[in-house]
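@channel sequence for tomorrow's demo:
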Amino acid sequence: MPFANTKGEGFENRIAELFAKQLGLPVQPYAFPQRMNFIRNTLRYRLPGEDFRCDIVMSVPAEFDQASPTRPYYRSTYALVYAKGKGLDDVKSGADLIALPPGRRNKLAIGIHDKSPASLWLVKHGMEAQAKPYRMMSPDPDDYPGAIIDKDLAQGKIDAAIVWGPIAGYYAKRVTSPQLTVVPLHSEPDVKFDYAIAMGVRFGEREWKETIEKLIADNQPAITAILRDYGVPLVDDAGQPIR
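structure tokens (generated this afternoon):
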């Protein structure tokens, strides 16, 4: 979550259901851990005499090279999340965090996923000592990206977290005490925070790709409404927040 789960509760599940209804087709979800060889074991995989396991992957980077990406259906950005009333209420941007007085800034513990843009950004601004890294991929099926927010941040084990926008928005929305603030971050030279997200289909399936792209175009308002239901911070092509 918030992307998808086996119970069909994620925003990818809801968008798939929206498309399937308009195509007059049943939704046949296939779940596979998003690890190495994900595309090879889903979109490209089939046994002799059987169909492919999947015909579409609901979220891939718009410049993905392992599948044929459609037109983007949303753009989001990494975000800073912190608890209100804990000393960071005056931070309204990444620049505000960097500009904090050294006495305040150096005491912070900021949770990040390792090898993410957040780690590059903190190093760039001399804040590597404030970073508390979490594994990007864990072999533990019960370990989920949002734990950095709804467990450690909510419990005060860290002062802030910098994570991918959909994770930030969804889990911050679920935590009611303490109340959490989500601050979308803007890309800067050498650190890209915002990314366009598309859907992936197999190479060579031009008509299927065109069908999906038409569904995206025709249903963009409904797709955007679903994303907002899940707290996804949306940005435009310039990386500016869309209100």
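heads up for whoever presents: Residues 43 and 55 are 6 Å apart (CA to CA).
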